[in-house]
Specification:
- The protein is an alpha/beta fold.
- The protein has one domain: Roll (2,3-Dihydroxybiphenyl 1,2-Dioxygenase, domain 1).
- It is built from 3 helices and 8 strands; from the N terminus they run E-H-E-E-E-H-E-H-E-E-E.
- The strands form 2 sheets. It has a 4-stranded mixed beta sheet. Strands 5-8-7-6 form a 4-stranded mixed beta sheet, covered by helices on one side.
- A hairpin with a 4-residue loop joins strand 3 and strand 4.
- The longest helix has 12 residues.
- The protein is globular and about 45 Å long.
- The relative contact order is 0.21.
Amino acid sequence: MRLGYTILYVKDVVATIEFYERAFGVKRRMVKDGDYGELDTGATVLAFASNSFARQLIPVPFGAADPQGPAPPVELGFVTEHVDADFRTAIAAGAVEVTPPEGKPWGQTVSYVRDLNGFLIEICSPLG
């Protein structure tokens, strides 16, 4: 078994895909009817489904992400050799700064932003 994809439920799939393209330089793989979209992020696909579409398919209640509320209890991590520049690019694209790039005792540089839906995004250097 392998992890194939992560799906985040969002208000507007197209706006979210466009934001991730601008903020993190990832390319869209597809968008279907505005209710589902995927980004080409390597071996594991990052996907988005509209809240309304998810409610039709999933038989359990879930809380919608809210950019004005607490960050949902999930984090996405983008690994880059250029944390400072990529952090600034994300902010310029509309990401909300949480913590600027900071060197950690284990040798990694780590920063955090929130996307337009309120999800927490880590922009960090590779480990080791």
